[in-house]
Amino acid sequence: MHKGTFFACEMKKEWAMVVLLTIFISVAGYSQRQGYRPIGDLATFKKQFAAESSKVSSIESTFTQEKVLTALTEKITSTGKFWFKRSNRVRIEYIKPYAYTMIMNGDKMLLRDDQKENTVNVRSNKLFQQINQIMIDCVQGTVLESKDFSVKVFEDEKTYLLELDPTARSLREFFSTIVLKVDKKDFSAHSIEMNEKAGDKTTILFKEKKLNTQFSDAVFAF
Amino acid sequence: MRCLLFESIIAACLMGCASEYAHLQKTQTDKDCSDKILPLTIETSWYDASVDVVGKHISGLLLIKNMPDSSKRVVFTSEAGLTFFDFSFSKEGRFSTVSVVKQFDRKAVIQTLQRDFALLLGIPFLNNVGQRYTTGDDVYFGFKEKNGTAYFITNKDCASLQRLEWGDKRKRLVTVRTPGSGFPTPALIEVDHHTFKMNIRLTRIQKE
Fold this sequence. Notes:
The complex is a heterodimer.
Chain A: H1 3-32, E1 37-38, H2 42-53, E2 58-69, E3 74-85, E4 89-96, E5 100-105, E6 108-112, E7 117-121, H3 126-140, E8 149-155, E9 159-166, H4 169-172, E10 175-183, E11 189-196, E12 201-211
Antiparallel strand pairs in A: 1-8, 2-3, 2-12, 3-4, 4-5, 5-6, 6-7, 8-9, 9-10, 10-11, 11-12
Chain B: H1 2-17, E1 25-27, H2 31-37, E2 45-53, E3 56-66, E4 72-77, E5 83-89, E6 95-100, H3 107-120, E7 131-135, E8 138-145, E9 148-155, E10 161-167, E11 172-177, E12 188-193, E13 198-204
Antiparallel strand pairs in B: 1-7, 2-3, 2-13, 3-4, 4-5, 5-6, 7-8, 8-9, 9-10, 10-11, 11-12, 12-13
């Protein structure tokens, strides 16, 4: 083959690679937020989000949690019950396939497994405080005010998608991003996806949500 | 009388100071029995984990995973999903840390967990020849390592594995028991340390 033809052929191959790579990267980027578009006016959204989510005074729901260990192609799915009452009170009760309860009530937190229970003052542990606050902020709609994250907001027909990039060093050690999906119809949390640095992912999907119903404060007592 | 008291104290001290493995009688090896018990394997499983260490309690989920390349991974996560550590044992038994969060990243913690999981996964028994010992109804197979000896213990008729142990020259250091169903699908695993307060309890999770 003539040297020039050879180079032309190689150049064509390289271009083809570049084009393929560009398509691949675009598709990969697109598929991450597939079906979502960035919202136009973040400031207006923030105001609307704060106003609408403040109308949610309580949530009672079931949930499904899926933890995926990407590199090991393993996943474990658990189910349980969830309660939230404004402000700063959350109970997460894992029922299957293991029993575990977390109650966050103001500055105090209870962790109960089938062997023991621990009470933690979250003020004495910054990491606990931050992780505790993520859950509270996500369900009571105050996450956009958090200084621990920078936020990008997208939307589709039914949900808003809030992509939270941790700015706090202690959170960056654990999470690459946290993705919160919020139902447009009532501004309640639809799902929380926690992406870890190593590629592992935990998604909590809220189901059978009942908003603003009456239930006893004893749910959060310990 | 005073002399008798003194002798009793000395005798008690000697008994107390005597090696816990001094009563083991070295015998000829028994390859058939060793081959029957080894290699120890645990099928890929998730466990509900509970750890008590010097008055502190930690719980979470532990994954033991057999990889396609014959290496083994041990991953500990919180119930809410956060990965605390991911350890790997190669096919040949070499240990490495794939990831570990700052809270667990202490040399003493990692070394302790490495030894516990190595024993549970039968790593010390992989490339060595064991010495057989007997005592009473128990039959010990000891495999010398750098920092102690790993034992698997069976009964005289080699019917089943009784327990696993780490020991040094004088003391029993760690015991691993699997009450109820044994390897390769133990429903319950108990790891007890004898030189400081630490125990690990793993209950197999039936995935839905």
